[in-house]
Design a protein that fits this description.
Helix content: 40-55%
Largest sheet: 3 strands, parallel
Order of helices and strands: EHEHHEHHHHEHEHHHHH
Strand content: 5-15%
Number of helices: 13
Shape: globular
Structural class: mainly alpha
Strand order of the largest sheet: 1-2-3
Bound molecules: adenosine-5'-diphosphate, tryptophan
Radius of gyration: 21 Å
């Protein structure tokens, strides 16, 4: 049977500090670009943030800031269901049901857990169980598509596996979601050449001012090739950022890399100029938003009502399937 229902898109970001251009190009920009074409739900993933943030005033501030960030990049709360994960209790309720189906060895294979375990002896249960809460986020809304960065791809696979396992045991209940990754550059590189991440301190903040952009770009680590020498655009961290910000001149820059004649200093100057052109409107929009908590709280309240109704309906089916209704 074909239907012309709009496909459902769900994604979210954790409120854990200022967003950087990796978050933007890897995930957030897709939310904006896709909001018209999908039935879109965007979350402030505050329960996931609790796995690492144990500072109530920082968390409160970051939740409101993330709402303003979403508005600044162009999410339209009249079109999108913009809500906060902890406002819809069905997320944790469904996560518990998934906990009772999933196995420890399966969760122990998750990259994020393995990385955390390698670094941290006292890993909390929330971090271990992160994929099941995320599966609940996604599956509760019959989500078709989940735009995320490369590092979240496995979590969407876990959600799909969890849907399949539940459906096998209790009958067809959950739709299998697909991840959606930005195609050109799947992982954005930070100023040290590693993946850009808050945890590596190598980020360029999305709303950075001109001086901060200049400072960050000037710090990007390159090799020591002279201006005249040919350079490899595929391994250079400056060029990786040109791919995002210098789309008009990209072919020319690539040629000058390959033939030699473009020094890293000049390449960085071009990048700074192009980044400013691209980011200034976002920065101005963010600054124009009166950081008015009442507005953010009202947006979240409206979103929670819409998401909450959908989630409650789904939970009625889930409870019926597993035998929790009498
Ligand atoms: P961080 O690693 O800085 O803490 P998060 O884990 O909060 O970032 O990621 C939020 C979203 O941004 C996720 O969808 C993630 O995949 C995406 N993302 C984060 N860093 C990058 C990056 N360097 N390149 C592409 N996408 C990224
Ligand atoms: N784990 C995601 C991140 O770190 C945030 C997130 C939580 C999410 N629940 C989600 C993303 C559901 C997509 C769908 O960025």
């Amino acid at each position: 049977m074909t239907s012309n229902r709009k496909k459902i898109l769900l994604s979210g970001v954790k409120p854990t500090g200022r967003p950087h251009i990796g978050n933007y190009f890897g995930a957030m920009k897709q939310f904006v670009d896709m909001q018209e074409d999908y039935d879109t739900l965007i979350m402030v993933a505050d329960l996931h943030a609790l796995t690492t943030v144990h500072d109530p005033s920082a968390l409160r501030a970051d939740i409101l800031d993330l709402v303003f960030d979403y508005l600044a990049i162009g999410l339209d709360p009249s079109k999108v269901t913009l809500f906060r994960q902890s406002d819809v209790p069905a997320h944790t309720e469904l996560a518990w049901i998934f906990n009772c189906l999933t196995t420890m060895p399966y969760l122990m294979r998750a990259h994020a857990y393995k990385d955390a375990a390698a670094k941290n002896k006292e890993i909390n249960v929330g971090t271990f169980d992160y994929p099941m809460l995320m599966a609940a986020d996604i599956l509760l809304y019959d989500t078709d598509i989940v735009p995320v960065g490369q590092d979240q791809k496995q979590h969407v696979e876990y959600a799909r596996d969890t849907a399949e396992k539940f459906n096998r045991i209790f009958g067809e209940t959950f739709r299998r979601p697909e991840e959606y990754l930005m195609s050109e550059v799947e992982t954005i590189t930070g100023i040290d050449g590693r993946k850009m991440s808050k945890s590596y301190n190598n980020t360029i903040p999305l709303f950075a001012g001109e001086d901060d952009i200049r400072q960050a770009v000037m710090k990007i680590v390159t090799d020591s090739k002279e201006t005249t020498e040919p350079k490899d655009p595929n391994t250079d961290a400056v060029f990786a950022l040109h791919k995002l910000f210098s789309t008009d001149d990209l072919a020319d820059i690539r040629k000058r890399y390959e033939q030699g004649g473009l020094g890293y200093k000049e390449s960085k100057e071009i990048l700074i100029e192009n980044m400013n052109k691209y980011l200034a409107p976002l920065r101005e929009k963010r600054a124009d938003i009166t950081n008015d908590a009442t507005t953010a709280i009202q947006i979240l309240k409206n979103g929670a009502e819409v998401a909450g109704d959908r989630a409650r309906l789904k939970m009625m089916t889930v409870k019926e399937r597993v035998g929790l209704t009498l």
